[in-house]
Description:
Layout lengths: L6 H20 L3 H9 L4 H31 L5 H21 L5 H29 L5 H30 L1 H14 L31
Helix pairs in contact: 1-6, 1-7, 2-3, 3-5, 4-5, 4-7, 6-7
Amino acid sequence: MFKGVNRVMRAYIYWDLVINSAWGLLSPIFAIFILQTIAVGNIARGAEIVGFATLFYWVTKSILQIPIGNYLDKNHGEIDDFWFYIIGTIITALVPFGFLFSYLPWHIYALQILHATGMSMIIPSSYAIFIRHTDKGREAYESGLDSTLFGIGAGITGAVGGIMVGYLGFKLIFILTGTFTLISLFFIFPVRKDMLPRVPRKIHEFPVEKNILP
């Protein structure tokens, strides 16, 4: 499966698998958490909070990605992409731990803004690294491999998360999501020395779209 895939791409795919699997635990139970814990059983209020949480996430992420992407493109080396990638993942990992202490709507909104900030750092930087390090002639295969593995991982953990919450509650899922998001970093750090000192231009292949969402 990984034959002919270079070490940077392997690291990227493993990171993608782990972080999406981690958030797969949280995705199916996020609305239930809002309804039970924040809206306290009020379905209409719960739907409103989830809606505004989605608004805060997407608007913040959409606003920040463009200036971050422009900044990263002004630097010829990949080390800035690498550190934005790392810091964005760390910020994203903090969000599930924040849910442990949330009991008011503004807590959720603030965490969604934090989540969006982390993702706005991850998406431009990780996509840039993906594009530059995809093996020539293997673009479709490696994009498909990445999408397949993180899709399977997120699907499996989504089912697991849905089962776990009924027996173990929300707290353990939040802890596991944050912990495994941090663990995903261990796949990225070893390829720091493979980051390009100069960035090749006129590369137009694009990576698979993904959403790491609650």
